[in-house]
Carbohydrate ABC transporter membrane protein 1 (CUT1 family)
Amino acid sequence: MTTTTEPREPLATDGELDTGPRVNKPQRRDALRGWLYMAPFALAFFLFLIYPTVYGLWMSFTGRSLMGANTELSGFMNYTEAFADPQVWSSLWNTVWFTILTSVPLVIVALLFAVLVNTGVKGQWLWRLSIFMPYLLASTVISQIWVWLYNPELGLINEVLGWVGIGNIAWLNNPDTAMLSVVITTVWWTIGFNFLLYLSALQAIPDQLYEAAELDGAGTFRKFWSITLPSLAPITVLVLILQVLASLKVFDQIYQMTGGGPAGSTRPILQYVYEVGFEGYRLGYASAISYLFFFLIIGISVIYMVINSRRGARP
């Protein structure tokens, strides 16, 4: 019996070893082009997010001052001081109270405005423009407008209240009315964003659902309760979470209208961080307060992600 052996092809030519699948030249060029496109964003991401975050966390464990002194690590001393600082808790409560007072009307009133505009009233472009236009203005403009409106002697609000016999009210100078004044300003200023979200969600509801409900004899309220509200549930969760996060970060309009007063009754936590860091020259302690507040916002974001994931897992 004879056996034949077919000749095997060489694994490599010209003395080179076969090291597996190779990337050809066009692929390498495409990969390099992709990295070059990403480089500006990656550099900006590192310089303006990663580096400040890590550097701020390091500062929170030091006694660093605004002049650059005291860079030695001090452990959790700043965090311990923050938990015992009554100014931190009062500022945090003002922030939470502002968030509660603004989030509820900015969700409910925005929904009502969107439903009314979506009913087909005449001049829809005017209604949409009127509700959304304040959102386009800068916070400085909004603050100046409302400071004049709230002026105890010359303001329009006290003038109108005087027609019904109500005396002058020092809106921004009274601890009982200062926070309410800022809340009214904020609601008027930012309601346009939530209004547009709700309006777009309303226009995405299929008309066939309402037509089928009418055939079954459903009235206006029944259609709103059984079709509109359930269809708006996902956008309502999104609006509520976005509104809570935005309200927790309040700073500019309060700083411009009241400066945190009177007697600290409107001072938010971010203004206290600013005062500690740039007026008290204690960057390390200000960083520690910032990170405590940062963890609070992260916790709220995690709650939203859990709610959203459970909603998506439902059949």
Summary: Residues 63 and 108 are 45 Å apart (CA to CA). The two ends are 69 Å apart (CA to CA). Residues 94-310 form a domain with the MetI-like fold fold (CATH 1.10.3720.10).
